[in-house]
Every structure is written in C-alpha cells, then in structure tokens.
Amino acid sequence: MNITLVLGIVSGLFLLWHRRWFSRTLSKDEITLRQSSRHSRDHEAIDDQGRESFLSFLEADDGKPLYMVNLMQYRDKAFYPAGRHTEVTTGRHVNALCAKAVVRELIKNNNTDWGVSRL
Q1: Does the residue 114 lie in any domain?
Q2: N or C: which terminus of the chain carries fewer CB neighbours within 10 A?
Q3: Closest Cα to residue 40, out of 25, 49, 51?
Q4: Whole-angstrom distance, CA of residue 18 vs CA of residue 14
Q5: pTM of the entire predicted model
C-alpha cells in the first residue's frame, strides 16, 4: 500500500476523532448519571459547594473537547504520612502509579457514551 495513502487515512481518522465533528452536549440523563457515579466513587464526602461546582461544570458543556495542561514538578523523595505507601519512592513513581489508575478509568468510561475527552 502506498505510504501517502496510509498517512492520509491515519490523518483523516485522527481529525475525525480530534475535531469531534459528531460531538454533542451532555444530556440531562448523562449529567445525572455522571453526578451519581462520581458521588458513589468518592471516598470522602464532597461538600455542597463542590457538588454545585461540578454540576455547573457539567451543565456548561458545549460539546467541544476539554484540553488541560498539567505543569508538574516532582519531589526527589515521595512524601506521605508515616507508614502509608512505603513502596513509593519518588515523585515520578507516584505519578506513574496515578497515570495507570487514570488510564484504567478513561478506558472504562470510554466504553460508555462519554468518550475519553468527555470526562
């Protein structure tokens, strides 16, 4: 197969995914579902202000992708209260463990109607 054709197909598929030409805003049912699933997963109770902020964020959805930039600075030695997470050594190690957990959640949520960029 011609390399130009392959690159064209890959580029087209990327643009189709990235541009979200078929995207839409969240429905009321999706907002309710997302709210309830987040609340049931939280280990600590969310205060009313946090719950209201999250609801406002979901209701303001315009159907466009959400982009974030995380500027990270790592500690040479991970800091946790005594006796907690003794297997974790550096800030980079902590980040790697968190990244694994986040990827699992993204994949799990991608199996629904949410899509990775809709979290």
Answers
A1: yes
A2: N
A3: 51
A4: 6
A5: 0.44
What the block records as the tokens of 70 is 């995380």
Tell me, yes or no, whether 20 lies in a domain. no
Q: With CA atoms as reference, report the closest residue to 27 among 103, 114, 88.
A: 114
Q: Quick one: DSSP state of residue 60?
A: T
CB-based contact 51:43 (threshold 8 Å): no
Domains held by the chain: number = 2
For residues 88 and 74, the answer to whether their CB atoms sit within 8 Å is no
How far, in Å, CA of 76 to CA of 63, rounded? 40
Token readout for 80 is: 């946790």
Instruction: Report how far residue 62's alpha carbon sits from residue 60's, in angstroms, rounded to the nearest whole number.
Output: 6
